[in-house]
Specification:
Chain lengths: 118, 116
C-alpha cells in the first residue's frame, strides 16, 4: 500500500515562470488537500477536493494559483507568474471520508514539493 | 487568532531524557479532533496520533504518551527515554469538523533536538 506521492520533490524557477506540481493520493482516498509550508511554520491550508470537486479555497490561494483533480484521483497545483513569495514547501495530503458512517479519517501527507523562486 | 499554539520553538535534550511538547488549542466547537505529526528533515509529515474531543483518556504507545485535558485546552506529547531518531519538528493540529470539512489548523511546530 503506497502512500501519498508528489512530483517533483524540488523545483527551482525564475520569477514570472509558471510551475505545476502533481500529487497522487493514497488509492481509494476520496479527499485530497493542498497545504503550503514556509520555513519555521506549520502547514497552511490552501484547498481541498472531495473526489473531483474543489470544495474550499483559502484566501491564500490567489488568482495565480489553480488546482485540479480531473478524475478524482491525482491532482495538480499550478502557480502562474511565480513570485519570490511563492517559495515554500507545497504539501499534499489525502484522507478517506466514510459517506455513510460520517467519520473523518486522518490526513496522510506526501513528502512535499519544495519550490524556490529566484 | 491562533487556533493552535506551540509555545516551545525549540527544545534540546540529551538522549534518554524525557521531554514534553506542549500544545494549546482554541475552538468554540464541541466536536473536534486533535493530531500530532512528526516532520523529520526529509520533510514528510508522519501521523502519530488522533484524539477526538469526546475521549479524554490519555494514551500511551511505546515511548510516546499523550495527555489531553479539555479543561485547559491542552494536548501535550511526552517522549520517554528520548533517542536521537526522535529529532524532528513536531506539529500539533486541530480539526473542527468531524465530517463536512476537515480543515487542519497547525501550530508552528516544536523542533526537538536529541543529542547523543
Amino acid at each position: 500500500d503506497t502512500g501519498v506521492s508528489q512530483d517533483p520533490r524540488h523545483k527551482i524557477t525564475k520569477r514570472g515562470q509558471n510551475v505545476t506540481f502533481r500529487c497522487d493520493p493514497i488509492s481509494e482516498h476520496n479527499r485530497l488537500y493542498w497545504y503550503r509550508q514556509t520555513l519555521g511554520q506549520g502547514p497552511e491550508f490552501l484547498t481541498y477536493f472531495q473526489n473531483e470537486a474543489q470544495l474550499e479555497k483559502s484566501r491564500l490561494l490567489s488568482d495565480r494559483f489553480s488546482a485540479e483533480r480531473p478524475k478524482g484521483s491525482f491532482s495538480t497545483l499550478e502557480i502562474q507568474r511565480t513570485e519570490q513569495g511563492d517559495s515554500a514547501m507545497y504539501l499534499c495530503a489525502s484522507s478517506l471520508v466514510h459517506q455513510v458512517a460520517r467519520t473523518q479519517e486522518t490526513q496522510y501527507f506526501g513528502p512535499g514539493t519544495r519550490l524556490l523562486v529566484l | 487568532a491562533q487556533k493552535v499554539t506551540q509555545a516551545q520553538t525549540e527544545i534540546s535534550v540529551v538522549e534518554k531524557e524525557d521531554v514534553t511538547l506542549d500544545c494549546v488549542y482554541e475552538t468554540r466547537d464541541t466536536t473536534y479532533y486533535l493530531f500530532w505529526y512528526k516532520q523529520p528533515p526529509s520533510g514528510e509529515l508522519v501521523f502519530l496520533i488522533r484524539r477526538n474531543s469526546f475521549d479524554e483518556q490519555n494514551e500511551i504507545s511505546g515511548r510516546y504518551s499523550w495527555n489531553f485535558q479539555k479543561s485547559t485546552s491542552s494536548f501535550n506529547f511526552t517522549i520517554t527515554a528520548s533517542q536521537v531518531v526522535d529529532s524532528a519538528v513536531y506539529f500539533c493540529a486541530l480539526s473542527e469538523a468531524l465530517y463536512n470539512f476537515n480543515k487542519f489548523y497547525f501550530g508552528s511546530g516544536t523542533k526537538l533536538n536529541v543529542k547523543p
